[in-house]
Every structure is written in C-alpha cells, then in structure tokens.
Amino acid sequence: MTERDRQYDIQIGDDAWIEFISLDGRYEQAIDIDPLLGELWPLICLLETHCVAGCCGMDAYDFTREAVETALRELDRAQLHAACAQAHSAVAAAASDVLLSNTMNHYADKRVFLQLLDHLDECIVAQDAAGA
Q1: What is the value of pTM for the model shown?
Q2: Percentage helix, strand, coil, to 5, in the chain?
C-alpha cells in the first residue's frame, strides 16, 4: 500500500491529519468565513509559525496539539472555548459547503473546517482539564 499524498491535508499531529475534500468545480460557491471566526483570531494568529499565510496558506500554521498548547499559555482558555463553540455554530450554519478564509489564504470544504474547529476545541478542553 502506498503512502497517501498529504499535500492538501491539514496536519494536526505527528501522524494525524484532517483529510482534504476535493473542491473541484465548487470554488465559485465559496463564502468568506473570516468574520465567522470572531474571537478565535488571537489563537489562529499565534499558530501562524511555519511561514505567513499570504505565502503558504494553511501550511503556514502549526495545528498540532503541542503548538496549540503553547499558544494557549498566552490566551484565555475559557474565552477560546466559547469562541470555538460560536465559530463552529456559525460555520455549520454557513450558506455554502465551500469556505474561503482570505486571512488564512485557504479554501476548504465545510466538513474539513469543522473538523479543524473541533480539533482546536479538543486541544483547549484538554489543556483546561490538565489544569495548565
């Protein structure tokens, strides 16, 4: 069995990925979700460590649990947990299944972005449970 091409997947751990869902023929349906992410931007900005989004899109971000835990040291976890819930609801209710974040320089299927929000929230909750 050959290794899956991970070029468009979002890495969230050493061997953990959110798999890309093809957007072929659907790009014109994209809606801007930047306003829907609201209070998550401070966390997202701290995760932009590999490069800048304008250059590398999602590859500029480090979404691993370790990177999220490091970023959370500077932020209010309770506020971010609430922000994740709000963003998840807003994105889930978005009028299209194709999303665009101009800030993150990224198009995504709604299911992929919802998985990313779930992952971020799981990291926040785990950090809270650890009492860090």
Answers
A1: 0.93
A2: 50, 15, 35
